TrEMBL record:
Protein name: Oxysterol binding protein 2b
Single GO cellular component term: plasma membrane
Entry annotated with the keyword Phosphoprotein: yes
Family of the protein in this entry: Belongs to the OSBP family.
Organism, as annotated: Salmo trutta
Localization per record: Membrane
Gene name of the record: OSBP2
Region (Disordered) residue spans: 25-44
Listed InterPro entries: OSBP_sf (IPR037239), Oxysterol-bd (IPR000648)
A GO term for molecular function: cholesterol binding
Membrane topology of the entry: Peripheral membrane protein
Length: 435
C-alpha cells in the first residue's frame, strides 16, 4: 500500500491531529477513572523464582510431535491456564463498547479490527506456556459491575485441546469462540496455530462479525533468548452488510527495513471499494486513515499494479497500556493478567483459580507444583480410562453444547446457559470434582 496524505486540511487540522494521540490517552485515563473497578484487585504476584532448566533437554525428544501430548514441568509455564489466556482477549473491551455506539458500520469495523489486533499485544514478552486446562475446567471473569461484561470459558476437549468461550456485555455486544490450539515443534521454532472462528455480534444493529486468529511462532527454542512473532492474514467479515477488513501481520525479517511487528489493513464495503486504511503494530497501536481518493500507481513487487490511496490524517484507534512496574519479574503479565488468578469467592468448583498446581506455581513452590501437576494429570487419565471402559457417550461439557453455526456451517460448542444462575444461587452440585 502506498499512502499519501492529502493536504486539504489546514495547519490547525494537522496540529489537532498531532495532539490526537495525547487527547486519546487523556480521554482514556478519564474514562478509566470513570470505569474504576468497585473492588481493588491485586497489582502484583510473587516474583518468578530463578530455577534453571534446559528447555532443549525436554524438547529434543519432541520434534514433529503435537505438544499438548508431552508432559512438561511447570518450569516452562506461567501461572495462568489457557482459559485465562483466552479471557485476556478482553483486555481492551472498551473498543467493543465504543464500537457498539458507532452509527457507521465501516467505522465499527475499524474498531473491531483494532480489537482483534489488541489481543496480541500481551504476547510480546510472554514466552512461557500457559497451563493446559483439565477436561471440564472452567474460568469465569465476572466484570459485570466494573465494566458491564461476564465471561465464561470451559475446556471442552482434551485431545485436541479445545476451549469454548462466551462473553455477554450489557454495553451492547456478545462475543463467542471455540479455539483449538494446534502446536508443532519444528526444531528451532514452535508454531502455535489457534483454529476456530471468533464471533462478535452487536445487539442493536445485528452486525455479526467473524474472524480467525493468526499463527504465533516462538523462536530460539534451542539457543538464545526466546521471542515471539505473529504472522498471517486475518479477514474480518460483517455477515449482515458483507463489509470486510483484510489485515496482514508481517513476519519479522532481519533483512527488512520495515518496522517490526507491523500490521496493515484495508476496510472495504460490500462492493469491494476501500474506505479506510489501518496501520500500526500488534504490540503498540493501530491507527485508521479515511481514504479520500484512490488511483492506480506504478507496478509494485511481483508485477502487480499498486493502488495509491490518498487519506486524511490517521486517527488513533487503539494504544497498548504500559506494563505494570516489575512486570519483567512477574512473567511480563499485564495489569489484567495479574488479576486473573486472584482468588475469588463464589466461582464454580472447576474454576482455574482453584487448580492446585497452578496456585503452588504462582506462590513460587515449583517442586510441589510439579508433583501436584503429575497427580492431576494421572487423575484425569484414570477418569478417561474409566469412561472408555464404561463405553459411555464420552465427556459432555457442563455449560456448552454442540450447535451448527448458520454462518460458517461449522459445528462448535456454544454456551447453553445456566452458569451465572448457578453462581447466583451458589448451587454447584452439577460440577464434577476435577481437582
Amino acid at each position: 500500500l502506498t499512502l499519501t496524505h492529502t493536504h486539504t486540511h489546514t495547519h490547525t487540522r494537522a496540529r489537532f491531529d498531532r495532539t490526537q494521540e495525547h487527547t486519546y490517552t487523556h480521554k482514556l485515563s478519564l474514562s478509566r477513572k470513570e470505569m474504576q473497578p468497585l473492588r481493588r484487585r491485586r497489582s502484583h504476584i510473587p516474583d518468578k523464582p530463578n530455577y534453571s532448566l534446559n528447555l532443549w533437554s525436554i524438547m529434543k525428544n519432541c520434534i514433529g510431535k503435537e505438544l499438548s501430548k508431552i508432559p512438561m514441568p511447570v518450569n516452562f509455564n506461567e501461572p495462568l491456564s489457557m482459559l485465562q489466556r483466552l479471557t485476556e482477549d478482553l483486555e481492551y473491551h472498551e473498543l467493543l463498547d465504543k464500537a457498539a455506539r458507532c452509527e457507521s458500520s465501516l467505522e465499527q469495523l475499524c474498531l473491531v479490527a483494532a480489537f482483534s489486533v489488541s489481543s496480541y499485544s500481551t504476547t510480546i514478552h510472554r514466552t512461557a506456556k500457559p497451563f493446559n486446562p483439565l477436561l471440564g475446567e472452567t474460568y469465569e471473569l465476572d466484570r459485570l459491575e466494573d465494566f458491564g461484561y461476564r465471561s465464561l470459558c470451559e475446556q471442552v476437549s482434551h485431545h485436541p485441546p479445545a476451549a469454548s468461550h462466551h462473553v455477554i456485555s450489557q454495553r451492547g455486544w456478545t462475543l463467542w469462540q471455540e479455539i483449538t490450539i494446534a502446536s508443532k515443534f519444528r526444531g528451532k521454532y514452535l508454531s502455535i496455530m489457534p483454529l476456530g472462528a471468533i464471533h462478535l455480534q452487536f445487539h442493536s444493529s445485528g452486525n455479526h462479525y467473524v474472524w480467525r486468529k493468526v499463527t504465533s511462532t516462538v523462536h530460539n527454542i534451542i539457543v538464545g533468548k526466546l521471542w515471539i512473532d505473529q504472522s498471517g492474514d486475518i479477514e474480518i467479515v460483517n455477515h449482515r452488510t458483507k463489509e470486510t477488513c483484510q489485515l496482514k501481520f508481517s513476519p519479522y525479517s532481519y533483512f527488512s527495513r520495515e518496522v517490526p511487528r507491523k500490521v496493515t489493513g484495508v476496510v472495504s464495503d460490500s462492493g469491494g471499494q476501500a474506505h479506510y486504511i489501518l496501520s500500526g503494530t500488534w504490540d503498540d497501536k493501530i491507527e485508521s486513515s479515511k481514504i479520500v481518493q484512490s488511483s492506480k500507481g506504478g507496478s509494485g513487487s511481483e508485477g502487480k499494479q499498486k493502488t495509491v490511496y490518498q487519506t486524511l490524517s490517521p486517527k488513533l484507534l487503539w494504544k497498548k497500556y504500559p506494563l505494570p512496574d516489575n512486570a519483567e519479574n512477574m512473567y511480563f503479565f499485564s495489569a489484567l493478567a495479574l488479576t486473573l488468578n486472584e482468588p475469588e469467592d463464589g466461582v464454580g468448583l472447576t474454576d482455574s483459580r482453584l487448580r492446585p498446581d497452578q496456585r503452588l506455581m504462582e506462590a513460587g513452590r515449583w517442586d510441589e507444583a510439579n508433583s501436584e501437576k503429575q497427580r492431576l494429570e494421572e487423575k484425569q487419565r484414570a477418569v478417561r480410562r474409566r469412561r472408555e471402559a464404561e463405553a459411555t457417550d464420552g465427556f459432555q461439557p457442563q455449560w456448552f453444547h454442540k450447535r451448527t453455526n448458520a454462518i460458517t456451517g461449522e459445528t462448535n460448542f456454544v454456551y447453553k446457559g445456566g452458569y451465572w444462575e448457578a453462581k447466583d444461587s451458589q448451587d454447584w452440585s452439577m460440577c464434577t470434582e476435577i481437582f
